[in-house]
Write a structure and sequence with these properties.
The structure is a homododecamer. The first copy, chain A, is α+β, with helices and mostly antiparallel strands. In chain A, 22% of the residues lie in helices and 56% in strands. Chain A has a three-stranded antiparallel sheet, with helices on one face. Chain A is elongated.
Chain lengths: 68, 68, 68, 68, 68, 68, 68, 68, 68, 68, 68, 68
């Protein structure tokens, strides 16, 4: 109940969907941070090439539990 | 033209997509409120379990017509 | 490096996904504007018919290079 | 002094003025809610037909006293 | 996991502390709404009488589970 | 349903009312843009001369349908 | 060109219109401050009595030239 | 009803609580300004010394009636 | 004077007060980060159990000096 | 007095200063738009190469008079 | 430690740089207010003449210590 | 294309310019973080001594590539 959390800000990208860009960022974070608990989407952008959306770039904040 | 609308704030969730979380909230709202007209996404969050996105939580405002 | 960009604001719609609504707006923009470079999602709304989401309406800002 | 208030969000419309759109929303609210106390304008939009403003749409939050 | 929540906006007041103003709003809400889950402080104001703070007025959003 | 809209930002002015400043901006826009659909008030300012309000300056965003 | 301005924040009220509430605040400010130059509307609220709008309360920022 | 108010921005501090920091700012304001009516908390900060919170710094806006 | 600071975002919790939730987050941060200098409250939430506030969750940004 | 203005959004860049990035955007705009009147800085970013700031990217809104 | 500060809002201008516009505002403020402590840039605008930036206008908030 | 970025928040200072304060923060960051890619200015403040600007304090977010 009285946990302390830290929040970090990441940008994930994906050629397919907004959801996939978020999951790619999470997957990378999970390599070095344990106890990931929740995320909040902060900003959604897309890079365009040849007049078409090339990939999504989604900025998220991710919260995780700090060990006591 | 001179309709009056009320807006309520809901949070829907889904294990699959942001769109599906919104639709789940709408489906629930439609059980008790008629004349739903539009929605606005206010916030998009995700709950994480075992380092992976477990489900999306999307906060929306939903507008509906008030009977005269 | 010292490019000048212009940003315009568009609203795209789609009966399927948020991503598709963005792509529809881009496709229309690419007909008259060249050198589209990036986009930012500004607002996501949905129109509701018969208690179900009928189509998404996504407002984006799109940046493109101005010819020197 | 220690009253508890609830705030609801409404959209009123009028073909004439912003003030009138607000009053139309209040008039409708007063049919079912007592003890309305104050309002805050949240957003002001207008619908356009044939190149002219057809009607104002004003979103307000209205606060009212909850019975103890 | 796939719960749907509704959020309502309340203003609580107290002559003592900000925390107490929030608790007074919750206590009132709990009389008619079950399954209250969380709150977010939106705004904190104070009314002043004779040059001293007379009571706090704290606006909160409260989320609760909608029955399926 | 799957229309694409463009939004432009204008500032209209009037010596009389906020509503009139908006209408003046719309009237000018309608000369060169067809299919105006809606507007959103972004900012309301006033210029003061001799201690009195001389004219209102209202910034709006106007949305219009792009031909396919 | 290189004037320095100060901005102060006022709340004006009126039983009739938003514009009139602003003018009442300006009229009061002009009694003690010279060289008023512009204003920006910050917030528009209304007080309600007996289910009807009793008076508008409009918060403005007013800019004026500081003497060198 | 048609009062005009002025709002000023103050920062109060206290080694004990957020509420006390606000009261300290009010106490100072009341020495030179009469008719203080309400306050709004704008920002809450804390200064840290030796790894512990040393004192709170709370920015408020205070509204008071202007004499006619 | 020309120090460089880093800011991190933490969420502290407490069953008693908002101030205590902040102090719990600071206490945890001080275990691994030296030279903590100031904090800013970003968001205040509460978790509710059995219709009563169970604990406060306060999000803060904490600034600390980076060694040269 | 009753001019109508249009605002467009541009991004200028410069390897030297923020002011220069703005001037570069203005210089480009002045090639095709007459009667430029004012600008507002919306966002300031920098691109980094080899650990050093390579160039500034400043987003501005520029207002200009529309011919009657 | 338990100082009380007041914040005022000023607009400074300069034909050269953003920094210079801030300093011009400070220089003017220092003529009548003692104990200026810090400033925050709120908004940066520029006036344009003949297609070129004529002068910067920078809005700042300035904090100063109130005598006890 | 599918890079993942992390963003950190820093405050740099300088007695000369806003640009220099940013560069000082970058220089410090580059000592421990590789692959810095871009920055965004979040807030610009100044400390005042003897009525004059003593040094600028600029808060930035800096994005850098996370190794896969």
């Amino acid at each position: 109940m009285e946990h302390i959390y830290k929040k970090i800000e990441l940008v994930g990208s994906s050629t397919t969907t907004i959801e996939d860009a978020v999951k790619n960022a999470l997957e990378r974070a999970a390599k070095t941070v344990h106890n990931l608990r929740w995320l909040e989407i902060v900003e959604t952008r897309g890079q365009i090439e040849d007049g078409k959306l090339a990939y999504w770039q989604v900025t998220i904040k991710v919260g995780f539990t700090l060990d006591a």
